[in-house]
Design goal:
Number of strands of chain B: 10
Helix content of chain B: 25-40%
Number of strands of chain A: 12
Strand order of the largest sheet of chain B: 6-7-8-3-9-10
Mean pLDDT of chain B: 90
Strand content of chain B: 25-35%
Low-confidence stretches of chain B: none
Largest sheet of chain B: 6 strands, mixed
Mean pLDDT of chain A: 83
Structural class of chain B: alpha/beta
Oligomer: heterodimer
Number of helices of chain A: 12
Shape of chain A: elongated
Shape of chain B: globular
Amino acid sequence: MRNSSYFKMALTILLHSKVRSWLTIIGIVIGVGAVVGIISLSENMQKDMEDRLSEMDLTAIIISPGSSRAMMAMGPGGGGGGPSSSSEDTNLTKKDIIALRSIDGIKYIYGQISGREEVYFLGEKAELTITGVDPQVWQYASTSTAKSGRLLEPSDNYVAVIGSGVAEDVFDHEVGLNQVLTISGKSVRVVGILESEGGSTDNSIIMPIDAAVTLIEDAQPDVFDSIIVKAESMEIAETVSDDIKNKLMISRHVTEKDIDFSVSTSASMVETASEMMQSMTLFLAAIAGVSLIVGAVGIANTMFTSVMEKTREIGTMKAIGATNRDILMIFIMNSALVGLVGGILGVIAGSLMTSLFPLLGMQMMRSSMSISLSPRITVFGLFIAVAVGVISGVVPAYKASKMRPVDALRYE
Amino acid sequence: MSENIIVNSVQNNESYPLIKLDNVWKIYQMGEVEFAALKGVDLQISKGEFIVILGPSGSGKSTMMNLLGCLDLPSKGTVFLKGKDISQLSESELATIRGRMIGFIFQQFNLIPTLNTLENVMLPLEFQNADPFMSKKKATELLDLVGLSQKVNNLPSQLSGGQRQRVAIARSLAADPDIILADEPTGNLDSKTGTYILDFLYELHKKEGKTIIIVTHDTTLVRYAERVVHIKDGIVESIEDIKNN
């Protein structure tokens, strides 16, 4: 029999199949939809990550107290919110900065403090992150740029540069240049508004550290929540990071075992984030895989029933000249078609799901990002579906092909 | 391809009788007991005969039909098809031989319910890799011959019993087989339609020299036969020649 005839026979069987067999397709639809959606999501997140990476200042190295790694603490601006992981009995101080000054390859180094404080503006109140930086270094070291106004200058005191989010979204009234915020009873004049960067910097208030110390509760002079280092180039960032670690271990009299600070490069943080993302994707893919298996079992079950129902037809076909191979091919083709239909519906479901992700507020992605299924994922989804169809159809089809014509014709 | 060579050699071998049963036994295992459906049957059928195999239910006539149609193999003895022992053929060789040499007509019509009339008639040709265009032409001609040219696109469920059996006849003729093997062809039809079907087969036999084998319990079919094989309890009781038909 010709392949086109197999296809035609398989198609007529599919078109005449009962509602019950269409229901089993749902398993495949969900499985393929989930697989396609998850792959598409992770690819988009990967792309987003790469975009951020390309914008990111990869020369940044962040030193934080405590042995836990500082993660995701730095926005793309590099001068944003500090790490939240700090332990009470270890501090980073001016002494550490002095100890590090001698390391080669460091372009800038400055201490930074941060804390959340209530900020008043025109009678409204909001809790915002206040970041204190060394104004002299920060204006050069930061990748942030001012949308209006200026960055901090060495002579600044109770003035602030605010993120675009603070300016536009936090308060009912837009915060403009030279307007005054009240923080811990002090008046702070806004001298600059930063460009939106999509990171935590958007929602923080950046001030000279000497002023910030007086505003942030628990803050002490010359004690930092983190030390920000800029290497001279991204190539040597890793080396510089190792040097910093060794140097600080000596100056702080600690060993690898009782280390009380951590050093991470922005590149390593990106790596950690993408590792996390990958394991999450893997986990979700495993769940999708399970639903594909369930779908496969469903198809196999329907195929067995279908073969049994068609016993007489199989007998007839064999009587009028169908070989075992003909019967095998017809039923495998039928099962592949069931898979294909499930796959098409699954890809549609998957693309619907994908287009819903931004609405669900996936915070790891930029809101501006548009996601859609790539043709490659679509083809992959269909391929998976057909493969599942074929695999689950093999055994029932084989059973059908091996029926003896006499027995099959006698079947009631 | 070797399969084709074997099948061709069987099909074109004219020096032997068409079908020969030689001391054929068919024994079924029913749990612990054995049941012999055929007990040493000898029968020879020549090309161009119109034969009725007549017997009550349980006589072994269905078993005989299965062996004559190469649907089953004997437990003992030999079935020769044009001199070839069918037990020596592979399953797919047997399938191909059935497709080319034997046209089946069943009591239950056995049309494929998901295929329309035309597709049902084309099916035997498709199993033989025939050219789709030629198959369609042939099937259309045959449906015209059985008077169903208006029903080519109908599904079997939209046809009456008589119409279905005419489709089945057209299908049995599609591959232009030597033998038409009919199992109770009128069993599910009223007598008028049954007569039409039998007249049609008789015409076919007279005009085209087809070998017609009808297996039935219905004694009224005997009047078409040239030979009647009476079978009972698994043995051939008598063979009756009715030459002057």
